[in-house]
Amino acid sequence: MKTLADPRYTNEIVSRIGLVWPDSPRKWGKMTAPQMICHLNDSFLCVMGEKEVSAATDFRAPRLVKWIALNMPTHWPQGTPTRPEIDQQVNGTPPADFAADVETLLGLVERFTRRPRDFQFQPHPMFREMTEREWMRWGYLHTDHHLRQFGV
Fold it and tell me: What is the CA radius of gyration of the chain?
């Protein structure tokens, strides 16, 4: 199972981030590549407690959905709604300088996986409390999902 707890898969993610360009075409969804980079930045910042995100109140059976999302051997579905604070079409952080936004993302991935941590994981807006293993799996899957969105 791929997880950011394994340096091999962290290095894979870092390498794939380097393959995204400002004009990389999307395979699905509405975000541009620069918006996707900012969405990932916002997502990491939320779970690190550095950006506010609202909890999904209409989300049913979070433990079951969390288990399925983190453990099933399938890709995450396209078009899954996200919270408005990290939705690039609503209130997500707008792209600025692409290279700087990518550097921010690489720094957040490094910080997310660093031990010891200089932050405490905050509850996931949909899955609620998560274990260390679950966070590392989420980090891989969420980043992988959006990199696949842009063919990398």
Answer: 14
